[in-house]
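Data availability excerpt. The first of two example chains:
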Amino acid sequence: MISECIKNAYIAHLSKKIDSEIVPNKLVLRTLHKLAKYGASAAYLRLGEIYLRGEMVPRHLPTGMFWLKKAGNAGYSRAWGLIAKARASGGSFEQIGDLYTADDSAPIDLDEVLDYAIKGMEGGDIPSAGFSAQILLRMRGLRNQECRKIVLKAAQMGDPWSQALASRMASEGIAAYFLPGMTAQQSIIEWCHRSISIEIQDPFPYLNAARLMSCGIVPGSSDSARKLMKRAADLGHNEARTQYGYQLLCEGNTLHGVSYLQKAFWAGSGDAATILGNFYFKNLESENSLAVKWYIRAAKLNHAGAIKWLNDIVYKKTLNLHDRNIILYFLNRLS
């Protein structure tokens, strides 16, 4: 009894040292290992994150998985969600990327990733619930009943991404996403407001809210919709970058509009490149060669509108001979 009290007091003492800003980083890992040795389950979770992220040591997935599994078995449901994300993206927590095994080499089945995520969700971890919904959506699509069920559960638990998706599903008249005692319209508004009620780093809820406000489905001023679209664009959503960049061009803010559209293009948006081509072709006659460059870039991304523009430009002979020859050469290669 006495030894147990002493051990708990020592664990509490080490925990305070970890939380203190005066502890040098080189001592943190040693202290965490001491905590883990004495059975402090919170240390398992922190060690797992350290080895997966490579914060103070070289990133090592097997070691990170070992500590996270110990944390999960000790009752930290968040650990299962972290394992799911690490297994789905080779240790990167930011997005679902290529799939890797624990040794960071061979692809794995998403079913295993889903099992870990659902385990975290069943333990009450909200990010795990949201990740389960994203995985199922990717695997089976929204027509799948299990996917719809998980999205709804994650939304009810408070995951903003799932709440944004629930608002979209309610706007399509899917009764399962109507909130109790609310009409379709009321449910859409409530889900939308919940999804943006807290500051998050996921752009989708902001983009969804901006669209619903712009269409008049959710009450809100055009300025509010614009700010939400900007937020989604600044968080890296490519479609939001394209829409917001186009909006800025229409408002006469060329410098920032072009900047957002260029970022969208470099991330793979053919729409953004086509918009830039249209802008230079229609507004700056001296920049026809620049317009051609952006149309060709869009066409390389198989953008049908850009290819049509290139054909029209050639046969209407609206450019000088040099630019027409460049387009003909490209179109011949494309065909």
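And the second chain:
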Amino acid sequence: MKKVLVMVALVMVSVIVYAFNDKAETNQSKKEAIGNGKVVVMNKEMFLKDVFDYERSKKWKYKGDKPAIIDLYADWCGPCRQTAPIMKELAKEYAGKIIIYKVNVDKQKELAALFNATSIPLFVFIPMNGDPQLFRGAADKATYKKAIDDFLLK
């Protein structure tokens, strides 16, 4: 009986230690992800904090410190799967200059509705000043690069 209790106690301690370490790593990776050349998965809370708090203000005011692209996608969407690697490449190429976020419209319905995402992929190009511009549908890498250079980084 002692052996069983000791084993149960060890398993419980292991689970607790793993849970705390896993959470710390997740939080650290989120901090590192912003602006380091990776596409950042965004939820409503992050949008309100880092992009625009539409619950408190009706007038658009971007909160970020770098221009951004928000990729509204779904896992089942073929064109979305085609553009995902392009966004990853662009995040690396423009690291430190822009931030690329992605929003799953099936999980973040309120954000999808905010941008009237009736068709996907939908890209929201957010300059430092001025209103965001929507780009509907998939395109090649050169098209996205032109939009970044001409609209976000001009």
